[in-house]
């Protein structure tokens, strides 16, 4: 067994696979009753040789070598489903699974190519797409409201908006950024971005068990944050929000962090007078794993959608805590080819099938990964004329247009 | 079996390349350098051979921005030693670089008498693929380029090598060792090395250095860079509108008009 370690908090010692059964963060593994709810609720549970229940059993039996030699955990998309359902409240996604994954990756003879590139790119360029770090803020030239970059104008600001990679570079993510900037502007919020100084928050790297990369990014972003004066951080990235809220404390993160969707929901009354344009859409909302299951933001996006004139909200059978992951978390974003080669169903396709079956014509999302994943899935399944994908913020912006 | 891998740093084209005020070189103020992709494959091939058959792998590189990270990564991946040749002049050409590197390989203890010298077939600043053949010339060793498979035999001191030709043709060669190989692609994609492992290597291992002073030979390169310019934008593409039939008719019309049908 290797010496993987994971820092779980500034006051805790490091937890590793060797000490996990005796560590405060891992000792609850001893209370596992082997009920199998984790495996049953896991979206890829049926293809995993070692779902969480078995991993715990093997760990307690001192037989982890077999787990670590298996590729089983590459199918973990860090969706928090096992953790959310565990009757013993065992910190599976938070603690155990990244430690196991780190060792699984070290044992792999070959890392799946797309994931390998994404990790290298994130370290080198601060984004997984190998886009130029010098162009991270290029999108602001395409928005018709002013967006302040702190490096150019370092005056104190109320909201530091952490845009994140997808919404900085991906064309559809940039649509969300334009809509977000417009909403900040309409609400009269004093906001600014880090621009080209921003780098990926690194949440996926941590949940993959690539802790060195995560810590490098966390240390970098923390150093940048310390250069400026702001009251709160609002991020468009559901995964970034998760990292700031749950992991960055280890590096001394004490800022108030919010995600754009719940942030705007808190301004609902101020937004309502601006939502004048009727949108005749039947909308179904997809709960992102990070915002929903891990942080409990179920009602905020729905309250925003209900406030849009003309919108009819429909629910998928799997909603809120039971939502099916889009498949992009925990590195899944760069494992589609690997899953395809293994014959696994793409979770984004499973999800949009359910969305289309509701009769909705819009699937609304709050996580930047979901836009491209669901748009791809709709095209693959031939549903692109039946349904479109929109971020909640995009729909709010559209409802403001006359 | 001692294997030497020659690694080259090339401009990273993720950043837009800028031309320096002299009009003859790249402005690297904002640009970055990255390991040449086919050299990364050469390193991987060396590590695969070492894992199968034993031996040592030494990575050699000329000093350049970000080369230390690349050499520490090589150690983290499994190289036994790294050697940085310090102080080469700015804008060193492939011809001059090969001369310096060959002298280091020929003179440095542990590298002298290497059984295999591997480097990438090409680099983006060596599209002629001259590095490997020049090394072979300087070292008076046999050379084979565009290699996609390499299996040396300790006992016979012969390596079986697969070389690629156009139109999907491959040839198997037997090459007497020692020899220089230009690697087109390793048998497997270059391995991933976690940053934590690289960091650990940075603390526990070091990069050996050897100065290039005295190894440079003026006047080796017969060609000089006269001018660097950005490519001229070509005419924009034309989107054919209408139904499939209309678009097909329009396309046939264009091809006929240009004498292609």
Question: Could you please describe the fold and organization of this structure?
Answer:
- The complex is a heterodimer of chains A (402) and B (261).
- Chain A has 402 residues and is α/β, with parallel strands linked by helices.
- Chain A has three domains: 5-107, Fumarate Reductase Iron-sulfur Protein, Chain B, domain 2; 113-265, no CATH class; 274-400, 3-Layer(aba) Sandwich (Rossmann fold), CATH 3.40.50.
- Helix content of chain A is 40%, strand content 10%.
- Chain A is built from 18 helices and eleven strands.
- Chain A has helices at residues 37-41, 52-60, 64-68, 81-85, 92-107, 113-125, 165-169, 171-186, 203-207, 211-225, 238-246, 260-265, 268-271, 299-306, 336-342, 347-357, 368-380, 392-400; strands at residues 5-6, 15-16, 148-149, 157-162, 191-193, 230-235, 256-259, 282-285, 312-314, 362-365, 388-391.
- Chain A has a five-stranded parallel sheet with strand order 3-5-4-6-7. Chain A has a four-stranded parallel sheet with strand order 9-8-10-11, with helices on both faces. In chain A, strands 1-2 form a two-stranded antiparallel sheet.
- In chain A, strand 10 (362-365), helix 17 and strand 11 (388-391) form a beta-alpha-beta unit.
- Chain A is globular.
- The termini of chain A are far apart.
- Chain B has one domain: 3-Layer(aba) Sandwich (Rossmann fold), CATH 3.40.50.620.
- Chain B is 29% helix and 26% strand.
- Chain B has a nine-stranded mixed sheet with strand order 11-10-9-12-8-1-6-7-13, with helices on both faces.
- The mean pLDDT of chain B is 94.
- In chain B, helix 2 (67-77) packs across helix 5 and helix 3 (94-107) crosses helix 4.
- The N and C termini of chain B lie far apart (58 Å).
- At the A-B interface, helix 5, helix 6 and helix 10 of A face helix 5 of B.
């Amino acid at each position: 067994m290797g010496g993987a370690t994971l820092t779980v908090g500034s006051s805790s010692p490091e937890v590793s696979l060797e000490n996990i059964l005796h560590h405060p963060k891992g000792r609850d593994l001893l209370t596992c009753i082997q009920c199998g709810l984790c495996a049953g609720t896991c979206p890829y549970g049926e293809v995993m040789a070692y779902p969480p229940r078995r991993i715990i059993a093997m760990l307690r039996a001192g037989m982890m070598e077999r787990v670590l030699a298996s590729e089983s955990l590459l199918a973990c998309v860090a969706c928090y489903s096992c953790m959310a359902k565990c009757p013993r409240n065992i910190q599976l996604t938070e603690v155990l699974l990244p430690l196991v994954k780190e060792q699984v990756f070290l044992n792999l003879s070959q890392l799946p190519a797309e994931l390998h590139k994404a990790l290298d790119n994130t370290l080198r360029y601060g984004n997984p797409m190998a886009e130029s770090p010098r162009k991270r803020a290029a999108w602001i030239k395409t928005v018709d409201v002013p967006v302040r970059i702190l490096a150019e104008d370092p005056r104190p600001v109320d909201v530091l908006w952490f845009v994140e990679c997808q919404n900085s570079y991906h064309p559809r993510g940039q649509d969300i950024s334009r809509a977000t900037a417009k909403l900040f502007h309409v609400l009269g919020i004093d906001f600014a971005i880090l621009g080209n100084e921003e780098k990926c928050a690194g949440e996926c790297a941590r949940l993959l068990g690539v802790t060195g990369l995560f810590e490098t990014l966390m240390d970098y972003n923390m150093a940048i944050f310390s250069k400026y004066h702001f009251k709160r951080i609002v991020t468009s990235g559901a995964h970034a929000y998760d990292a700031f809220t749950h992991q960055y404390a280890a590096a001394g993160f004490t800022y108030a962090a919010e995600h754009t969707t719940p942030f705007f929901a808190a301004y609902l009354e101020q937004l309502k007078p601006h939502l004048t344009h009727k949108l005749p859409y039947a909308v179904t909302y997809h709960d992102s794993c990070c915002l929903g299951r891990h942080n409990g933001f179920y009602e905020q996006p729905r309250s925003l959608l209900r406030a849009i004139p003309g919108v009819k909200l429909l629910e998928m059978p799997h909603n809120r805590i039971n939502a099916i992951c889009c498949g992009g978390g925990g590195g899944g974003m760069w494992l589609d080819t690997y899953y395809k080669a293994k014959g696994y169903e793409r979770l984004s396709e499973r999800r949009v099938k359910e969305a289309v079956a509701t009769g909705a014509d819009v699937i609304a999302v709050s996580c930047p990964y979901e836009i491209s994943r669901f748009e791809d899935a709709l095209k693959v399944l031939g549903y692109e004329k039946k349904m479109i994908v929109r971020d909640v913020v995009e729909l709010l912006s559209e409802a403001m247009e006359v | 079996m001692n294997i030497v891998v020659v690694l080259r740093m090339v401009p990273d084209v993720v950043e837009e390349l800028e031309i320096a005020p002299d009009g003859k070189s790249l402005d690297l103020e904002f640009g970055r350098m990255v390991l040449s992709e086919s050299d990364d494959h050469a390193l991987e091939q060396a590590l695969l051979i070492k894992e199968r058959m034993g031996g040592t792998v030494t990575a050699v590189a000329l000093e350049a921005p970000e080369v230390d990270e690349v050499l520490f990564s090589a150690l983290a991946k499994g190289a036994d030693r790294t050697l940085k040749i310090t102080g080469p002049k700015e804008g060193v050409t492939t011809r001059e670089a090969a001369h310096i590197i060959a002298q280091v390989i020929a003179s440095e203890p542990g590298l002298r008498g290497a059984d295999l010298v591997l480097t990438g077939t090409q680099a983006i600043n060596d599209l002629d693929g001259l590095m490997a053949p020049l090394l072979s010339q300087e070292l008076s060793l046999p050379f084979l380029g565009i290699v996609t498979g390499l299996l040396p035999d300790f006992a016979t001191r012969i390596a079986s090598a697969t070389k690629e030709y156009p139109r999907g043709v491959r040839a198997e060669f037997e090459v007497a060792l020692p020899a220089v190989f230009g690697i087109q692609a390793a048998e497997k994609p270059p391995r991933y090395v976690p940053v934590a492992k690289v960091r650990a290597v940075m603390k526990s291992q070091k990069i050996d250095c050897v100065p290039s002073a005295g190894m440079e030979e003026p006047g080796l390169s017969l060609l000089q860079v006269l001018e660097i310019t950005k490519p001229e934008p070509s005419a924009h593409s034309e989107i054919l509108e209408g139904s499939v039939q209309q678009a097909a008719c329009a396309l046939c019309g264009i091809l006929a008009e240009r004498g292609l049908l």
